[in-house]
Sequence to fold (387 residues):
Amino acid sequence: LGFHVMKSLTKGGFPGKIIPINPGSKEIMGLKTFPSIAGFPYEIDLAIVVLPAKMVPAIFEECLTKGVKGIVLITAGFKEIDDPIGADLHEELAKIVNKPHVPVIGPNTFGMINLHGHLNASFTPEFSLLQKGGIGLVSQSGGMCHLISFMALRDGIGFSKIVGIGNRLNVDFAQMVDYLMQDPDTNVIAIYMEGVDNPKKLIDTAKSHGGKKPIIAYKTGLGDIGNRASRSHTGSIAGRGEIYAGAFRQAGILGLNSVEDLLDTAKALDVSPIPNAPRVAILSSQAGPGIAAADICQMSDLTIVSFNEETQKRINEILPPLALRTNPVDMGPAWYNSEALVGILDAVMQDENVEGILLFMMFASANVDSIKSLSFLLKNMKQKKPL
Fold:
């Protein structure tokens, strides 16, 4: 894994110094090595440790003596294994770093990535190709970091930070939420969680920021089998789903049910403004999808509002009486008329009763010109509402 971490660092465009520590080599990937951390003559911001578990305590002691400010511990073999030796090693590491409080990402992690800082401190060089964005991802599982990141590469979704907290030696979800809330590059915090050791701390941390940024979470390990697997995977006691659902509600965290939901919701919250209230309008190119959307909105506690008089007047002037002209709106009669579509959307965008819009539109050769007209409107509109 050390080779792949070095490849990630060197190929990722990190502008700072990268110093390989290896007593058996003079040079690695064109970079001069040092036999030990103590032998390096300058300050060290971050140490990335990829060594057998039994060697890690001594390396941690060296890091503290050197004044290292933070550690990424990729090594596995601690409390997640079914062996008291691993748990004892975990406790030994905690005692070493917690008194001076040196933050440690891991152990048993894929690493961490700062896209805006061009730092790929993971064992996956491909993730340097991810786009910069405003999603801060915190995952208990390195596998989920990989799955979500590969999906994001496919879909062109950008991140600010990706952090695999693994077994959470002294950096847990609460610390990461607190950090990302203050991170100027992060607009939305996305969490993959198997279990949490101190749920009250997470709830209190999320509540203390008062909804400054949205937090979304996908929680697994809800059944008996998943619970046992979580314990073996990251040393977590997953807990019952309804307890976590209640805790998420208290903390203002939106719970989701799949990786796809987590990524899609994160993307939407990153690129769109947050509505001030759950009042929505539904605009559909056909009546059926609009009615289906109305059902989903009501099941999701969204209010399908009435338009104000001015908005309703403008829609009535554009659409014939045979169409559904109240909310939800059937724009079918205007499907071939880009000017009419733009007029309806513009009217609803300016309606103070509406905080968010669901637009369902199918495009074919007959109405392809509408794409350009709608895009122009959205790029130039003054009303900033999620669409």
About this structure: DSSP finds 13 helices and 16 strands in the chain. The chain has two domains: 2-271, 279-380. The CA atoms of residues 127 and 149 lie 7 Å apart.
